[in-house]
Specification:
single chain; alpha+beta; Tetrahydropterin Synthase, Chain A; three-stranded antiparallel beta sheet; 8 helices; about 25% strand
């Protein structure tokens, strides 16, 4: 059996409904009581039988377990993988079978903003929200090392380490997501501040950046049997040490762009005014007067504050 097919291998060992075994358990209890009642005068027979029945009941008790929807158990028999049990309900299996419970439910992770250099070398703060779930329980259990942060205990024959295991698994996912986020950020600029290229940027990329990020994280987590449902940037800003400088740069760029639009509009208005004056014979202006008129109109149209008019009460040439 190939390693990639192990999750498709269901558990085919012996298991029965837990309620059936509870009935057998009740029969054993009744048998122990009857032996004690009818054979109490022969302790050499009574005591071993009762002790054996009690030990059998204690051993049987560790075989019971309950499994909810979207949960599976990786069945391990003395170190050997025996399959993945995916049934839901109340069951009983061999008490010597170790059962590692894995949740297949969707999980959220908020990756705190980290400082990374973008494509242009500017330090930026970037964070994301990650939605993921376990896809292959076999790989999660046997391919990811979680023993360093796991307190293994035996309770009713089952490995009880869920909280510590989840903490280790979350740490693994967080580290891989952090590495993928750094890699993706390094391939794009924060913003196209000069508006000279049509390259994809972190600020304007939107869904394309999120898809690239999701792809990179999936490539890293596939080896652990984990699937990323969604990865989305939820925080993006310049690092504090350059935030003020980049803000002034953005403001300057915006001012220049606005000035270009204002000058373009003013020139078209001056041209229109001169053409109409000429076509309708309102006034005839020589080149010098035209230059003065153009200068005055541009001052009026391009000034930040309203211009103060100066009335000419003399002739046109005074």
């Amino acid at each position: 059996m190939e390693k990639e097919k192990l999750y498709e291998h269901p558990f085919n060992g012996f298991f029965v409904s837990g309620f059936v075994m509870l009935s057998i358990y009740a029969v054993l209890i009744a048998a122990a009581v009857l032996v004690g009642v009818f054979f109490y005068e022969t302790p050499e027979l009574c005591v071993p039988v009762i002790v054996g029945l009690v030990l059998a009941m204690i051993l049987m008790l560790s075989g019971f377990f309950t499994q909810q929807p979207n949960q599976v158990r990786v069945m391990i028999f003395f170190g050997n993988y025996r399959g993945t049990f995916s049934g839901t309900g109340f069951y009983w299996v061999n008490p010597f079978m170790s059962r590692k419970k894995i949740s297949l439910r969707i999980r959220n992770m908020d990756v705190e903003p980290i400082k990374v250099n973008d494509k242009e070398g500017n330090p930026v703060m970037i964070g994301m929200v990650l939605v993921w779930k376990v896809k292959d329980p076999y790989r999660v259990v046997f391919d990811v090392n979680t023993q360093s942060d796991t307190a293994v205990q035996q309770q009713n024959g089952e490995i009880v380490e869920v909280k510590n295991f989840d903490r280790s698994l979350n740490a693994f996912v967080r580290i891989q997501a952090d590495a993928a986020l750094r890699e993706v950020t390094g391939h794009y600029a924060y913003d196209d501040t000069d508006n000279t290229t049509n390259e994809l940027t972190l600020r304007g990329g939107g869904d394309e950046i999120n898809e690239r990020l999701e792809q990179k994280i999936n490539e890293r987590l596939e080896m652990a049997g984990i699937h990323v449902v969604e990865a989305r940037l939820n925080y993006l800003a310049y690092a504090p040490e350059i935030a003020a400088v980049m803000l002034r740069r953005q403001q300057a760029t915006a001012i220049i762009a606005a000035r270009e639009k204002i000058v373009e509009g003013a020139v078209s208005m001056v041209k229109m005014a001169l053409n109409q004056l000429s076509e309708e014979n309102v006034v005839e202006l020589d080149e010098e007067r035209k230059a003065a008129m153009v200068s005055n109109m541009l001052v009026v149209l391009c000034a930040d504050e309203p211009a103060q008019p100066v009335l000419n009460t003399g002739s046109l040439y005074q």
